[in-house]
Amino acid sequence: MTWMTWRQFRAQAIVAGALIAVIAVVLLVSGLKLASAANAAGLSGCHAGCAADASNFIDSLRGGIYQMLFYGGIGILYLAPALIGLFWGAPLIARELEAGTYRLSWSQSVTRTRWTVAKLGIVGLAAVVTAGLISLMVSWWASPIDDALSLGGTNGPVGNRLSPLVFAARGVAPLGYAAFAFALGVTLGVVFRRTLPAMALTLAVFAAVQVLVPTFVRPHLIQPDQVTRPLNPAAIDTLEISGPDAQMTVLASANVPGGWLLSNQTITPAGHVFTGPATQACIGPNSTACTNWIGSQHLRQQVTYQPASRFWPLQWAETGIYLALAAGLGLICGWRVRRRA
Amino acid sequence: MTTAVEARGLGRQYGGRWALTDCSLTIPAGHVCGLVGPNGAGKTTLLNLATGMLAPTTGTISVLGGVPASGPEQLARVGYVAQDTPTYAGLSVADHLRFGAHMNPHWDAGLARKRIEQLKLDPKQKAGKLSGGQRAQLALTLALAKRPELLILDEPIASLDPLARREFLQTLMAATAEQELSVLMSSHLVADLERVTDYLVVLVGSRVQVAGEVDDLLASHHLLTGPVRDASALPAGVEVITESKTGRQSTYLVRSTAPISDPSWVADSIDLEDLVLAYMGGATAVRPTLASAR
Q1: Which of A74, A122, A124, A132 is nearest to A319 (CA)?
Q2: Which of A149, A305, A338, B104 could form a disulfide with A160 if both were Cys (CB 3.0 to 4.6 A apart)?
Q3: pTM of this prediction?
């Protein structure tokens, strides 16, 4: 069973191996240069004034090749699980059902359950290992940038590793995505018994999940921290006045170094979100008068966020969820194969 | 001998449609059994149930005394050449043999290699590049080399040209003689079946119309021709299978264990094709001459 699974998977494995090798060379060559650039910026073993050095380093990436590679690495890690689901998952059993060869393999002296477990296990493991390798390479490549951001460098041209976009391309999460996308592809292939529809649906469902989870699930995996403090009128970075009744939005800056800002609100002493109305002082040209007026309103700033230290707990929690989903799909798949035809 | 296949009240539903309903039959082991019937009679469904590709919706089926595909041992006892003789198009002939060796504990590598040599197949050739006849032979080789006790074949020769058909059946016959295995083969090519089967099951609309050893069946069926009379005038103890009347004479295909001695009837023996067609569809098809006389 192992031999047959490997024999059928060989071509795909070779393609994946070649792609990983190319990615590895590009990342290794550029990653070494990036690391020495970070060294030159005084970031390794930094003890004092690190935030400023880090900010300078991050700013120096703007518009350059490293910014491009930073997002390229993220792109690869978004693409890899989807491609695994599409090209390894969906055809795995659907192709046998489509070509009728399942009648050949299921009439050998190996039970259908063992056959399914071997296929899911071997190719699924390859999927997880592939995603793990790429994540390891990309995480290593980006570590000077990730470190600089957690030292207090402002986000500037690149996001920190807790920001929704980057989070999915770091650490162990891609392993969970790969397992899930693979199991999703196999199961849809078994349900629809046709490779192409299964591929299309795998892509659609996986993309939807990858949008829904960071939006609705990830922020609540761990109860976010909330800080309420007096609004500092000197730190206001958003001030908008609109409408005939002078609706007013005031927001002070909320820097969460290396963390994930979920919400930043200005609330009144009564606990409501502050909406104005704006006083005449803020409509006029004198900004000091406006700032003084805002200062007299006893407003408070309420910040909800996941701190930088939550990176790994959130990673493990999300990976666990995806692995559980993958396991559930695997069970459905095994059950369908046992019953089908 | 034991029983090769035994079905009781067997039924299988696909979605809302019944492909097989309330089918009961017994096929003893030790025979080359032909399963014939019109399209839609449920032959493929029955064979898929016998190999465990499908699970029954109603009723039971046992094969060599066990539940089909219930475990590795049961799977090892039954070889299956499915309809259209599926093989892996991207895998070479040698890969298929390796596949068989890895998937079957009783794999007979020597037999497989010898057969591939006899067939003059190039081991490096991809199965997708083989002709239909060669592919069928490869599928048969895989099924034979796992050393089954029962070999089940579903329309294995339907899509082959006459020469390939003949070669396939010759290989099958040689193998059954060497390996002492029971065979259950469906086909609508009755003329081809006649050469190889010694047991026959006619299935129409999920029902077994007739089943038995071919020699017994042929000896007990007669074609009676005589002046126009109704069936009550037939000798006692005969069972009418089909009848047809023309202006001057009546023709009955009857089943009778006793020889026909009534001198007012001309009794002819029939061949397997007549027998099958009579049970499948009625008098029109019994003899081309009769069909034209109507």
Answers
A1: A132
A2: A149
A3: 0.90
